[in-house]
Amino acid sequence: MNILVAGGAGYIGSHTCVALLEAGHSVIVADNLCNSKAEAIDKIKQITGKTDKEVLFYEIDVTDKQKVYEVFLNHSIDGVIHFAGLKAVGESVEKPLMYYYNNLMSTMVLSEACLKFNIAKFVFSSSATVYGENEVPFVETMNLLPTTNPYGETKAMSERILTDIVKANSNFAVTLLRYFNPVGAHKSGLIGESPNGIPNNLMPYVTQVAKGKLKKLKIFGNDYATVDGTGVRDYIHVCDLAEGHVSALNKLSEGINIYNLGTGQGTSVLQLVKAFEEANNIEVSYEIVERRAGDIAECYANASKAEQELGWTAKRGIVEMCKDAWKFEKNY
Ligand code: NAD
Ligand code: UDP
């Protein structure tokens, strides 16, 4: 298939392009590089041995309807994967309009183009954040609870927009993939997560402390009702997540399909730090500080629906995630 990958130069998108190409698909990346670099496209080609024939790149903003339509007019596209979102929770609180505009317009422009050009397959990057403070493990059949920030709200709203579009257009099929916590990097060390400025997320913070770029990890709270008091998350290797998209595309059937992409395993902050230190034989200094506003105690998936219906499960464990994240950070 020829897949339009919106946001394909980014962290999850670039790994998904590799997985798609390795599965025999071609990709057209549409990315405005607001949180990534064009080098990612070269790295995708380098890893897969593919050329411009299978990997096309358009530096465009996917909220720009005219530019998006030009791409759809110039290529025969079989499906769209939409990663092109802004994702920093704190920034979304400070600049809500920027988040609502970018994340909702991109969803509307891309889905409208699909309807116009008769493209039936659409995969959307959603997030476990849409579950709100539900009981763990989170399962797709749960009622969603209120989100706690504009970023999360853009995911919940995009899910509702796409669900309504599917209801009104019986030949349009959408898969909503709810990601848990993607970490790690491609084995080659060529692509990975390289956030701008000080990282918000745990793993890139840990790798930068290990490298000496940052002094000390701040662990946000050790008084949660969890195994050791620190927050518990479902960390998933980004390559497993990427492969989940290939499985989702292959099985994309009529209507709206929702899948958790997680491992089903909860890991605390302290457990992750310890695993990182042991896997890489390197120390990570840390201190315990106040809880971070908006954090929940535990978040992990019931991942059995994806296993049963997509035949997909996460294969890589915490040690591999820690090793691959460190390899990328050292190379970067
Ligand atoms: P990322 O920032 O690395 O990738 C997003 C890519 O989209 C970037 O390359 C960026 O330049 C591009 N982009 C953003 N807005 C665009 C626009 N209007 N037009 C064209 N390109 C645009 O982020 P990521 O971690 O790879 O996340 C991908 C998607 O998955 C996002 O929608 C994100 O919200 C979602 N998600 C991420 C996580 C996570 O922890 N990384 C968790 C759940 C969901
Ligand atoms: N965390 C932390 N210090 C950091 C970043 C994160 O202690 O510098 C904790 C956070 O409180 C949560 C877990 O690590 O319990 C995962 O946070 P992250 O921001 O990576 O993902 P989230 O699940 O919040 O989206």
Helical proportion, percent range? 40-55%
Rg over C-alpha atoms, rounded to the nearest angstrom: 19 Å
Q: How large is the share of residues in beta strands?
A: 15-25%
Provide the spatial order of strands within the biggest beta sheet.
3-2-1-4-5-6-11
Low-confidence stretches: none
Mean pLDDT equals 97
Shape: globular
Tell me what you see in this structure:
Strands 3-2-1-4-5-6-11 form a seven-stranded parallel β-sheet, with helices on both faces. Strands 12-9-14 form a three-stranded mixed β-sheet. It has a two-stranded parallel ribbon with strand order 7-10. The radius of gyration is 19 Å and the shape is globular. Helices cover 41% and strands 17% of the residues. The protein has helices spanning 11-22, 39-48, 65-74, 89-94, 96-116, 150-168, 202-211, 238-251, 269-280, 304-310, 318-331; strands at residues 2-6, 26-30, 55-58, 79-82, 121-127, 173-179, 181-183, 217-220, 232-233, 235-237, 256-261, 267-268, 286-289, 298-299. By secondary structure, it is an alpha/beta fold. Helix 1 (11-22) packs across helix 8 and helix 3 (65-74) packs parallel to helix 5. The chain has eleven helices and 14 strands. Strand 5 (121-127), helix 6 (150-168) and strand 6 form a beta-alpha-beta unit. The structure holds nicotinamide-adenine-dinucleotide and uridine-5'-diphosphate. Nicotinamide-adenine-dinucleotide binds at residues 7, 9-13, 31-36, 61-63, 83-87, 102, 106, 125, 127, 179, 181-182. Residues 7, 9-13, 31-36, 61-63, 83-87, 102, 106, 125, 127, 179, 181-182 line the site of nicotinamide-adenine-dinucleotide.
